Each structure stands twice: as structure tokens, then as C-alpha cells.
Amino acid sequence: xxxxPLTPRRGLDAxxxxxxxxxxxxxxxxxxxxxxxVTAAIGMVPVADIQANPFQPRKxxxxxxxxxxxxxxxxxxxITPVTVRRMPDGKYQLIAGERRxxxxxxxxxxxxxxxxxxxxDGQMMEMALVENIQRExxxxxxxxxxxxxxxxxxxxxHEQLSQRVGKDRSTITNYLRLLxxxxxxxxxxxxxxxxxxxxxxxxxxxxxxxHLAILHDIINRHLSVHQTEQMVxxxxxxxxxxxxxxxxxxxxxxxxxxxxxxxxxxxxxxIKRSRRGKGTLTIHFSNDADFDRIIKLLHP
Length: 300
Known about the structure:
The protein has 13 helices and seven strands. The chain has helices at about 15, 65-75, 100-105, 120-135, 140-155, 160-165, 170-175, 185-190, 195-200, 210-220, 225-240, 250-265, 290-300; strands at about 40-45, 50, 80-85, 90-95, 110-115, 270-275, 280-285.
């Protein structure tokens, strides 16, 4: 039985842009067709002819989730087409939909519905990254690396990136700050040992040793975000040098009197005076006998 042609779903319009979807004339039988004649189309593509996406930001896929999706595909088929680009050798390279592609392989499919596009490496990277950021359950570090790749490889400004992914610039900035965290903190965030909010609090601790010590406390003691913020605040206050009271330089009369009293009492004498004239006179003694000696000198 002939398969009915697939209709593009509204959700994919954001990825495909305002492109007209047209049929591919002999695209699977004639690999010599110039790619420039194909803008975008829908067709059934052999699974064996699809290559993995080299720009895929997601590095790990949950095997149980893939198995569940594969079972669903066996029963219902692939509901949402993957997105690929045609290569000069007639093969296809995956742009978006790697979970569906992998699950289709597990399900034993020989063909898979696909949007076929013409795209440069830069366009392919941008589409793959934006599609993953918007649609996949990426962890915070994967999102941060994706944002950074879009900025560097696709030469996007923060404002352009904000428009591409539909996020506030402040949100993008917070994710990019994660790239400056120690590797151990990034790993803890990637493995969900800490949350994005924990990482934001830790980002303000610049001393690496203290940073990692607080990180270990968060993990071992299961600290909340509020507890983490309080710990970071206390750590900063402890590291801040104590403010010394400003003591005015002694006038010459006071300095002379201090020297005379030291000589007369044969003991350490300190005179401190503020700029307003208020101060203290301190006479040191070493023991009770020394105290009695000084008192007799002061009161003969």
C-alpha cells in the first residue's frame, strides 16, 4: 500500500523558516542532481543513508527513554519527521531529530520520514543547536556549550542569540557564566548533583579551594539553594579583612609625654588620640609586683 505524503507540522516551522516544501524529483534515484535545485522537501529516506550530526550538542542519551521511544515507533511509526541535508555523495546528514533517528534504528526501520534541506555547515550547526535548545531536555552545561557555540561558530551577538532561542539576554548570560566554573562543578551540574541556582551562587566564589569545599558541602549535606547562598555570604565575610580604626598621628606634645612616661616608669606606655582629641593612655605591667612598683611611682 502506498504511503500518504506527510504534511509538515506547525511545530517545525520555527526550524524550517519560511521555506516552501516541494517534492524532490528523483532525489533518491539520481544522486547527481545538483543540491542547489532542492530548497526543502519531505520524503522517506533510507535509515542506512543517514549520517550522525557532527554538530549535535547532546552527548548522552538515556537508553531507557530511547527504548521506550523505539517501542512507540514500532506501534505508531515516526510521527514527526527528522531534518536532514543532502550530501554531494547522495547520502544524508542529520540536522535535527537524533533521538527519533536512534530510536528508529532500534525499532528496525529501514526508512524514516525526513525534511530534506540544503544547508551550509554554519546553517546546519545553527539549526541543530537551536532545535536542541528548544526541544530537547538538555542539562544546563549542554545548553551553555550550545549557546557558546552559536555565538562563536555562527558569529551571533548576544542580542541575535536571544532572538534565535527566544530567551532573555540575562538568561543567556547566566548560562555562559557556567563555562567559567571549575571542571568539577561543571560535572556536578551535568550529572544533576547540583542545580543551576546552586551553580549561580557558587560562581561568585573566586577562590578555587573554597569554591570546591562549598561544592562538596552542597553535595554531601544536600544543602538547599538558600543554605548555599548563606554559606557563600558567610565565607565572603570571613575572608574580608577586618577594618582597622583610623588613628590620628600623635601631636608632638603627646609624643614627648609618651617618651617621658616610658622613661620615668620604665614600662611600656601607649597614647592613642583621635582627630577630635579624644584618646586613651595605657600603661603596661608584667605582674602584680610590677603593678605595685608603677603605682608607687605615680603616688610617692
